[in-house]
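Review form for a predicted model. The reviewer records the input and the model, then writes brief findings.
Reviewer: anonymous (R2)
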Amino acid sequence: MDTGGHMPNGLSKKTELRSRSWDKVLVPIPEDGPHPDYFSEAEAYRSLAKLVAHEPNGLLNAALEQVARLCRAGSAAISLCGAQFRWEAAVGELATLVKQPLQGEVAELTAHLKPGESLLLERPGRVLPSLDDAQAPIGWALVTLFAGGEGVFGLTWAFRSTGARPFSQEEARLFGDLSGYAADLYRAAARPPESPHPHEAELSLSESRFRTLADNISQLAWMADANGWIFWYNQRWFDYTGTTLEQMQGWGWRQVHHPDHVDRVVERISQCFATGEKWEDTFPLRAADGSYRWFLSRAVPVRDQSGNVIRWFGSNTDITDRLEAEEQLRQSEAQFRALADAMPQLVWTTNADGYHEYFNRRWYEFTGMPRDENRGWNWADYLHPDDVEPTMRIWRRSLRTGEPYSVEYRFKDISTGTYRWFVGRALPSRNAEGEIVRWFGTCTDIHDLKSTQEALHESEERYRLVNLATNDVIWDWDLQSDEVSWNAATLQHFGCPPNALGSTSKHWMDRIHPEDCQRVWNDVRAAINSATDTWSHEYRFRKNDNTYAVFLDRGYIARDASGKPYRMIGSMLDLTERTRMEEALKEAKRAADAASHAKSEFLAHVSHEIRTPMTAIIGFAEILSQQVQDELSVDCVETILRNGDHLLELINEILDLSRIEAGRLELNFQPVDPWELAREVLALMQVRADESETRLLLRAESPLPAAISTDPTRLRQILINLIGNAVKFTRQGEVRVALKYLPEKAQLEFAVEDTGIGIRQEDQARLFDPFFQTHRGDTSGAGLGLTISQRLSRMLGGGISLESEEGKGSIFRLRIAAGEQPVADLRHPLPVVPDAPEAQHTLSTEVDLAGAYVLVVDDNEEIRRLAVRLLQDRHAKVDTANDGHQALDKLDADRSIDAVLLDMRMPGLDGYSTAAAIRQRGLLLPVIAMTAHAMKEDRDRCLKAGCDAYLAKPLQSRELLKTLDALLRQR
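Model under review:
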């Protein structure tokens, strides 16, 4: 910069830099100021570009604002002094202290900054007389720069620095240019108003200074005309992009913008060019090597005295490293918090003064501290009152000396309201200068450890007393000397005095059975070498008569403060009698399991042998019911069907009880509408009710859930039993079923109330016992219905209770789990009187199997005849086979067969193998399993073998025909 023969640009010999600590002063950043990372050169030349269009006094004020922003101060004051004049100005809070311009002696030009609430002044009386009594605080840095000019001797910029601040050559040039620029501004301010056309010269000079400054900074700079046509870039732009002015001038800069951002940038900067608004944006620019880096772009308009834009000055500051550093810092902070939240300890951090800034999740869970109170020193409120003073004393000493912090104290556990012992530890984190900037601490729960230590002393005394009083063999092993001592109980259990057993661990091991010895030794050494304190093992020990007895040996491992084991104490309990009893119990359990298995096999066999002929009996009775007309024949057929159903019900009850007792009954939970299910059961029971002239009524005593999760089959089974019993023992009366939701227990209640004969008091206690029958006159059934219902209700999360008075009726209350139900989802249905259902054994008339070709496979001739008759009555073509081999031969010979009814238990090739062979042949025709095995696992096995449906014998004609019709329609 041309100094007019005066001092050169840059730092002069008077440059002075001093730094001292200035406690706890934060320098505020102006609200409209940029991020602190973006100060320095970019801000300087942007402001210089902005200033050239202002009037002189405005230029000086703008320069002053730039000093405040550049040095990150809240306010600033400047005094320009010459031989015959003095000009003062201020921005921020200092503005109220500046008086009118004064005439005075020649003095250097000084800018004074005020960060926070403290004034930073050098000889304040020389600059602002109103501040003669002000005291300049320590901790400020002074840079004095000289830029000569007519009547102007120099300029000083002063600002606070909390640490040593070296100035680079670029910063030196910056301050030099700013000094020269301020001198130029003053000359403009001092020029008389009538001076002709000062603006063009000033603009030219400012542009010259701007170009000089911009070519020596690290930012990418540019200038554009009023319309946004860029006609100049600094050298840094060309060095970075690898382009030329010919390529970049005008709007050529779009070539180095990222394709994902260029349209947005063009749109926004065009708007700024049109409105004259300041420009700011971030985007990536392509470097000469093809890579991209992120930049912060800013531009300001330069206006003439009329306010018209005549220039645009812009810059692009590389912020890639800062963005990456911010992301790394964010990730590091997130990792620290994630790690801290995963730790069982209470984790915390403070600043250098001990002010707590962070607690992990475990802290809040343990103390119950509200998260909005997690700052400062209020953590001490959660200490035990007796521990506050010593804890705070040690903590303050660590803050003062920087020594690691470690102390034991008690914290209150919010979940129990009790205090637990913790050890608090913290280490300081220091910066490059060795100053503490942060403390990282943990609180580790040692309550159990301290309790153990306290209990250890008590146990020593207890051990001494127990050793005298116990019947067990007590041993004490010194792990350092390998000496083992025994109590007097060895005489009773081993047949020898303690001194006859030897005094080392080798003598102990020599008496252990050879098959157990190595295993016991390895196990006890593993316990000693681990962190555990206890050990136990069962093994055989040789007594003095050379016989072996089984002992349970339990030991406690004593450790010193470092965790090193030094002693092991144990007791040996003779298990000979217990072992004998356990073997007897195991044998009894094996026998019981075998008996249970035999019973299950027997029941399955009986079920099969009964269900197979029952299929023929019920099936042909159904067919016969369609043929007979006279009253006697109809009555006979109905009797056969009714008793067949009763026999089937007895078989099912026996099988259910067997499965429940064996733990093999599986429930199938699914969403169920309880009101609809109860309505269906009442409709099913209406026929029985009509026979006894009993009225059925269904009502809701509270709003009900639309659906609950339960097993609909088992719930229906329980309700049929309860309502059936009520109808059976009520003649010409009423059976009322009431549903009620119990929100406090999350249960649903079905109350079945009848006006029947009631139950005697002495019968009520045994009513749910297997095979028990009351003396109410009707003893039909096996006496298993209520037993099964009670056990099923418990499996469904509830139970059945009884209220009854002989001669006045009974109330059975069934409760099952219903889950918590939102009030908004409950409904209150209207009472229902059910209609009579369709007769159970009425043959389906709507099914027509004309055109269907069905193969019936069963080794029982009666079943084949029954199936043929049922299918032919529905116009189907039917063929039969008496085993699996014959069925496969017929399927191989005739691929026109549409479906197969397949018995699963046949001699030779059974139904499971036959179904698998059908699927292996690639045949996709429907296969319906027919089996007398009624267990769920039987159904699953049928479907797994390749069957499409499963029908349990005795076959119900309606179910068989509907199932077959549905599968044929799906083809």
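Findings: The chain is about 40% helix and 25% strand.
Further findings: Residues 326-445 form a domain with the Beta-Lactamase fold (CATH 3.30.450.20).
Recommendation: see findings above.
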